[in-house]
Amino acid sequence: MQTTFPRLLMKHAAERPDAPAMREKEYGIWQAHSWSSMAALVEHIACGLHQAGLTRGTHMVVIGANRPRLYATMLAAQSLGAIPIPLYQDAVGAECVFPITNADVRLAMVEDQEQVDKLLEIRDRCPDLANLIYDNPRGLRNYAEPGLRSLDALIESGRSFAQSQPGFFAAQLALGQPDEVAAMFFTSGTTGNPKGVVHTHSTLIDRAQAGAEFDKLSGQEEVLAYLPPAWIGQNIFSYAQWLCCGYVVNCPEDVSTVTIDLKEVGPTYYFAPPRVFEGLLTSVMIRMEDAGRLKRSMFNFFMAVAKRVGPARMNGQPIGALQSLLYLLGDLMVYGPLRNNLGFSRVRVAYTAGEAIGPDLFTFYRSIGINLKQLYGSTETAVFVCLQPDDQARADTVGVPIRGVEIKVADNGEILVKSAGLLKEYYKNPAATAEVLTADGWYHTSDAGFIDSQGHLKIIDRVKDVGRIQGGVNDGAMFAPKYVENKLKFFPFIKEAVAYGDGREKVCVMLNIDFDAVGNWAERRNLPYAGYTDLAQKPEVYQLIQECVEKVNADLSADELLAGSQVSRFLVLHKELDADDGELTRTNKVRRGFIADKYLPLVDALYLGKTTQFIETVVKFEDGRSGSVSATLKIDDAKTFATVKAAA
After folding, report:
1. Whole-model pTM?
2. Strand-pair category, 567-572 with 612-620
3. Residue 574: which of 549, 608, 554, 598 has the closest Cα?
4. H/E element holding 132?
5. Following CA atoms 13, 16, 20, 22 in sequence, which dihedral angle do they give, to the nearest 10 degrees?
6. In total, how many domains does the chain have?
7. Per the domain annotation, does 440 fall within a domain?
8. Last-in-domain residue among 212, 237, 253
9. Looking at the predicted structure, is the pLDDT value of residue 558 above 50?
10. Which domain holds residue 19?
């Protein structure tokens, strides 16, 4: 479809003006915005932005949670041929400096006082930033900064302009072309400054439509938009596909109300990274452990039935009359109420991506009748590269290439992709663009993997992270840190893992416990603790984590290729890894190199055979203050296993 996002909006507004386009929860009540009201709002904001100096080809940043008026602002910018750049609302001010200066941003649209304060704090480092527009006026009444104004004032100004020049907006829409730049998304910048990924209307719309065709999405879907709009995954699901399909996007009231809002909305099309599904399951298991014996027994019995036949049933395979009857009974008594309690009673398609998902976690959701699947893609590919068909969902693959995608595997194992959804370029970075885009249109993903016998893509790790063990009994063995980390994180007690071993004689890991899961485990055993640091160093917790590590080792020993990646030593960190402390990206990926430098004494202690190591770490609190946390950490050995040779 050769069109633009604003034209798609106008198409829906013309064809079904009164149908709901978005809903927003305010003060506990869902407020609907029709397609026609969204179209009028976009026109007025566009006219206001034009008066504020936003012109074709220029950039503006948008910072905030999912809000109809912020979505309308992005559409308004695109209507003028300008380029919106969504930034993470939880990023600190310093993280916003590079994107704003790199893109020569003169105008910013932000959600509230928190975001205004953030940009005012860095304004001296962003000399071109002349206009700040805010949506929520709370707390901003007495602000008198130059160029600061409310979105309401801009809309009113735009409305008057539209009345005086009624043909202006339509003329601007007509100028827009599918191959013009639609948006720019900045990467997380794990190894340096972030890169601005430039996408056109045609690249984003092509991939949004390909995904919609694959899963037969329609205008009847309900979607909950709760992840950061700056992340292209959320942007595709609740913006690009919203405008392609015309379904309803629901915006939660607040981060803290997402679980409640999920139950109220009952989405039919849902997306979440594995950590969200892990958190939901952990809360379920915690509640069941606290339930009465009869309820617990019934839950365990029917979950055994679900685990036995549920995935086969989801894949359309015969399961027999008796098992079908037991499953139907379980659906009535356990699975149905559980899906309803999770907010998944109406989910038709649910996706997870970004990290590997544990087989047990994946099986759990599919076994209770939730069509959970995996996808593969990135910011540079406009997300959709591989998706899993409904009857071929497996935990160990990321699906098959969808319409318009070609995949090949380079000699070094790197996955190369060709599709109509590839980035146009990295903004002002031709060298980086040339590194990832070949002259004949192939994109280097930097992921190592292979296509299996059934045509499904399997991802092992990042190409640059795949290393070799040097010395010791596993000399020369392959080391895939992400693969090891993901296997450790499959356990509900382990929240984060950072593995090291490339160029060393053995693999060592630093871990974060899941405070809620381990805390509940400790309380049921009458094990007292005073906060995260104390709990993390309990001998009983170390024993629990050691069992998890050794189960991973036993599993790895059955894989000849990765048996050398078994974990020899581990420690539990005294603090949770945090994006504000630079240890995680804003999409919660570990910055392994940064962590190695920051915690060098711990890495050295792991490899020097020490049993304890003192560490003191500077941390940043939510209010901006800094402090420190210190502890003497235990370091334990883990049992490793001989490689299990495959049968001839």
Report:
1. 0.84
2. unpaired
3. 598
4. strand 131-134
5. -30
6. 2
7. no
8. 253
9. yes
10. 5-181+227-253
In the block, which residue shows the tokens 């993903």? Answer: 445
Contact by Cβ (8 Å): 509, 497: yes
Question: In one letter, which amino acid is 159?
Answer: R
Which secondary structure element, helix H or strand E, spans residue 568, and what is its range? strand 567-572
Closest-CA residue to 238 (of 88, 106, 67): 67
For residue 581, what is the domain's CATH number?
3.30.300.30
Residue 160: which CATH number?
A: 3.40.50.12780
As a residue count, the chain comes to: 648
Asked, for residue 333, whether it belongs to a domain, the answer is no
- For 126, 304, 342, 492, the CA distances from 297, given in Å and listed in that order, are 61, 11, 20, 21
Rounded-to-integer distance, Cα 83 and Cα 424, Å: 14
For residue 487, give Cα distances in angstroms to 234, 356, 482, 505: 26, 8, 9, 21
Give me the pLDDT at residue 130, please: 94
101 domain residue, yes or no:
yes
Residue 232 CA to its chain's centroid (Å): 9
Cα–Cα dist 614/634, whole Å: 9
Query: 82, 44, 88: which is closest to 62 by C-alpha?
Result: 88
User: Tens digits of per-residue pLDDT, 216-268?
Assistant: 999 999 999 999 999 999 999 999 999 999 999 999 998 889 989 999 999 99
Place 645 in a pLDDT band, splitting at 50, 70 and 90. Answer: low
Q: How far apart are CA 54 and CA 84, in angstroms?
A: 11
Token pair recorded at residue 548: 């998890």
Phi, psi of 604 (to 5 degrees): -60, -40
Q: Encoding tokens for residue 576?
A: 């949770």
Q: How many CB atoms lie within 10 A of CB 320?
A: 10
DSSP H helix total and E strand total for the chain? 23, 29
Instruction: Record the tokens describing residue 276, joined without a space.
Output: 């969200």
For residue 31, what are the β-bridge partners? 24
- The pairing of strands 148-150 and 507-513 is unpaired
Report residue 25: phi and psi, to 5°.
-90, 120
CB atoms under 10 Å from CB of 577, counted, come to 21
Of 128-142, 148-162, 528-542, 551-565, which gets the smallest average pLDDT? Answer: 551-565
What are the DSSP E strand ranges found in 177-259?
181-186, 196-200, 222-224, 248-251
pLDDT score, position 82: 98
Domain-located, residue 102: yes
Q: Using CB atoms within 10 A of its CB, is residue 622 exposed (0-12), middle (13-18) or buried (19+)?
A: exposed
Total Cβ atoms within 10 A of residue 173: 20
Percent with pLDDT over 90 in the chain: 77
> CA-CA distance, 645 to 356, in Å (whole number)?
26
